[in-house]
Amino acid sequence: MFKRHRNLRKSAGIRKLVRDVYISADDLVYPLFLEEGTGIRTEISSMPGQYRLSLDMLDAELDTLNELGVNSVLLFGIPLEKDPFGKEAYNDTGIVQEGVRQIKRHSPDMVVITDVCMCEYTSHGHCGIIDESGVINDTTIEYIAKIALSHAKAGADIVAPSDMMDGRIKAIRDILDENGFNELAIMSYSVKYASSFYGPFREAADSAPAHGDRKQYQMDYRFSIDAVSEARSDIEEGADIVIVKPALSYLDVIRKIRDTFEVPVAAYSVSGEYAMIKAGALNGWIDEKNIVMEKTYAMKRAGANIIITYFAKDIARWIKEDK
After folding, report:
1. Between β-strands 47-53 and 28-35, what pairing exists: parallel, antiparallel or unpaired?
2. I need a surface site. Which of 11, 33, 186, 277 has the fewest CB within 10 A?
3. H or E stretch including 91?
């Protein structure tokens, strides 16, 4: 018969000693929405505490992140002009490209990850080039590769294609290598579901589809086997890090990817997750800090190495306070 172990968790000090899951500010990536113009710091109504920023307002945000020890950002751009081909996405002086340069001037050690997609830049709001049948995969990946190259030239540390087109990782890896960016990492949105949790993001990035939806190229949440095959395909084509998005409803998928592949896994805690917690907290229904930390530990426990979250600043602040 086994002897019953003592309850080591009765002591706060011992609890810390035997804890086996940890979160550090180094694990966190903070999304930033950059908008063309000046004097812009517009709060996103469905995401209280999150803002669309013009570049002249960016340095103050970087100062806050540096103070909190959040060392990585993920950039999204909102251009002044949109067209069917999303040409501002690969404009060498576009909003994201200029944002990368400014961040590297102000905070050279900040890891700058750029979202590589077309939905914020196309007049129709889809993630690629379309015709009457929908998004044209092979044409789209040519544009996606051009966008990634323009971000690399601007000084991005990591490019993160989120379009979900087949073959885009190879196209990006090829164009980066051909232009001397052999060491630039690709963080692929490999497992991205057609989710209802993206609504607030579409307001934030002004990227809602003008017609139809994205189920043609995003994944069906009723299937799980596709997650492994999608991640495997991206890794074989050259992805260095894979993203599972959304995070909280797909912890099982995070664990499956972590157990199957020997690459870092990023969990993207998306806008809908953020909005629900904020709404509950603002109404006094839930304890914001404890809810956020509980779900963040759940993502780490499931196997995420990296956590992309709109709560990054709050989490980093709470970690400091708890020390």
Report:
1. parallel
2. 11
3. none
Q: Per-residue pLDDT tens for 95-133?
A: 999 999 999 999 999 999 999 988 888 877 667 676 666
Q: Retrieve residue 169's tokens.
A: 């990782």
Per the CB < 8 A criterion, the answer to whether 250 and 244 are in contact is: yes
**Does residue 188 sit within a domain?**
yes
Q: Is 140 exposed, middle or buried (0-12, 13-18, 19+ CB in 10 A)?
A: buried
Q: Do the beta carbons of residue 172 and residue 140 sit within 8 Å? A: no
List, for residues 162-212, the tens digit of each pLDDT value.
887 889 999 999 999 999 999 999 999 999 888 888 878 777 766 554 444
What Rg value do the Cα atoms of the chain yield, rounded? 20
Position 62 in a domain: yes
State the CATH number of the domain containing residue 205: 3.20.20.70
Pinpoint the alpha helices (H) of the chain. 12-18, 58-68, 95-106, 137-154, 168-178, 199-204, 225-237, 251-260, 271-282, 288-302, 312-322
Query: Partners of 83 in the beta sheet?
Result: 122
Tokens for 289, please give them: 């800090």
Q: Is residue 7 part of a domain?
A: no
Q: Which residues pair with 191 in a beta bridge?
A: 244
Query: What distance lies between CA 257 and its chain's CA centroid?
Result: 17
C-beta separation of 39 from 57 below 8 A? yes
Looking at residue 152, the DSSP 8-state letter turns out to be: H
Active site residues: 192, 245
Distance CA 63, CA 77 (A): 20
Q: What's the CA gap between 175 and 145, in Å, rounded?
A: 7
Query: Which structural domain, as residue segments, surrounds residue 221?
Result: 21-322
In-domain check, residue 204? yes
Sequence-distant (6+) residues with CB within 8 A of 14 are 8
Q: How far apart are CA 250 and CA 194, in angstroms?
A: 12
Give the torsion through C-alpha atoms of 274, 280, 286, 287, to 10 deg.
50
Q: What contacts 105, CB < 8 A, 6 or more positions away? A: none
Instruction: Determine the Cα–Cα distance for residues 74 and 162; give it in Å rounded to an integer.
Output: 12
Copy the structure tokens of residue 3. Answer: 């002897």
Q: Supply 303's token pair.
A: 């196997």
State pTM to two decimals: 0.90
